[in-house]
Specification:
heterodimer; A: alpha+beta; Beta-Lactamase; Barwin-like endoglucanases; 6-stranded mixed sheet; 5-stranded antiparallel sheet; B: alpha+beta; disordered N terminus
Chain lengths: 275, 131
């Protein structure tokens, strides 16, 4: 079936939804990879792009709880309702007084029905092509290890912006199911302490190593409570009294950079050793 | 400060005491009392209460703490961005529904609150209790 027909049908569906629910000011439909499938005349491009960026980040994080189904944002002047339909996201800007249960019922019937009909008519066209080329590649969950471990202190804090810079790097399929440990932070300091190296239990490093056919783990990714992710060199805990306590020892300076305090939890993942 | 044994106390007592004013401390205590009551409700999984210098977490399954914390931070960030883009004005509440659970996010003063619950729990009732 023609892709344009698909887009036109969905656009008409949005128009009908707006007719039934006049509280809908703007509406558009996005694919889960960030491409726009259909939108009404009120869907302004900067808003759409911002929505894509915001949702992309959220859908990625929501994977840990089964994926994003619905998102409702209520402000003083209105609401935004995002709903997942057959792998797509309908985004609607609503007035403050909008009847959300009614809208949910309407969209929950109309959009899946239209999609089902379209799929049954043109089963050879599995999914609609994007109307606009505004695809934003999902940031990889793990950055591939650098050829040499050169973590510099100024590059320690990884922000969302840095995630965006790493967007074009495709994560290998095998990296998507890496093991991880939730460990308690312990600070340590000293004159000879390198801020790019953290210390972990030998047992954890050995367990990870065995998962990668005995390759040694030299680096780990640390994800903090506030969502910051950074990569560090990994060594075995030097002080034996900390062995087997589920602790990760992080240099004081690095803790400051990551805004970590002693006793906080972090998620630690091994970086796949290079061949 | 009394600490619930089962709570994952990420923000320690020491951190809470760093709050600049006694009034702020009382406010935090009030919020925690309300949140503890809410957590006792059927279907409520837990909460995260974050301020600029501290965080209190009480989640039934401790292995999910980081996942939930990262998700709620990301949800609030996305909601703030979308609220700005769509000119929604001051953000009142955000509700995120996944296949497994529902999260109510709101900001009270400098405190960012995330309440995690099963999907059948009435988040509006919880919101009213919080505000």
């Amino acid at each position: 079936m023609n892709e344009e027909v698909y887009a036109v049908a969905l656009k008409n569906a949005l128009v009908e939804i707006k007719n039934i629910c006049p509280d809908v000011h703007q509406a558009f439909i996005l694919m889960d990879n960030g491409t726009i499938v259909a939108g009404d005349e009120q869907a302004v491009e900067p808003i759409v792009e911002r929505t894509i960026n915001s949702l992309q980040s959220l859908t990625e994080k929501a994977g840990s709880v089964g994926g994003l189904d619905d998102l409702l944002i209520e402000g003083d002047k209105g609401k935004v309702y995002v709903s997942q339909v057959n792998g797509m996201y309908s985004v609607m800007a609503l007035s403050k007084s909008a009847d959300l249960p009614f809208l949910r019922t309407v969209t929950g019937i109309i959009l899946p029905t239209i999609l089902k009909v379209l799929n049954s008519i043109g089963s050879e066209t599995p999914l609609p092509a994007p109307l606009k080329s505004t695809q934003i590649v999902t940031p990889p969950k793990f950055r591939p290890a650098p050829s040499k471990p050169t973590v510099k202190e100024e590059a320690v804090e990884e922000t969302v912006k840095e995630h965006e810079e790493a967007e074009e790097i495709e994560a290998p399929e095998a990296l998507t199911h890496l093991p991880f440990e939730q460990l308690i932070v312990d600070k340590f300091g000293g004159l000879m302490v390198r801020s790019d190296t953290v210390q972990l239990d030998l047992e954890i490093l050995e367990r990870w190593s065995s998962l990668f056919n005995g390759k040694e783990i030299h680096e780990v990714d640390i994800e903090t409570f506030s969502g910051k992710t950074s990569r560090y060199k990994a060594k075995v805990i030097s002080d034996k009294k900390f062995d087997g306590k589920g602790i990760i020892r992080i240099p004081e300076k690095t803790c400051e950079t990551l805004e970590l305090k002693r006793g906080e939890l972090v998620r630690v993942k091994p970086v796949v050793p290079e061949e | 400060m009394p600490v619930k044994k089962k709570a994952q106390q990420v923000g320690t007592a020491e951190q809470v005491e760093l709050a600049p004013q006694a009034e702020a401390k009382e406010h935090v205590a009030d919020l925690r009392t309300v949140l503890d009551n809410i957590k006792a409700r059927e279907g409520v999984i837990g909460y995260i209460l974050r301020a600029s210098t501290s965080a209190a977490v009480d989640i039934k399954d401790p292995s999910k703490i980081i996942d939930y914390a990262v998700l709620s931070a990301s949800a609030l960030e996305s909601a703030e961005s979308l609220s700005h883009a769509f000119e929604l004005g001051k953000l009142n509440k955000v509700v995120v529904e996944s296949k497994d659970l529902k999260i109510l996010l709101l900001t009270i003063g400098e405190h960012r609150i995330s309440v995690f619950m099963e999907k059948n729990v009435d988040h509006n009732a919880i919101y009213k209790e919080m505000t």
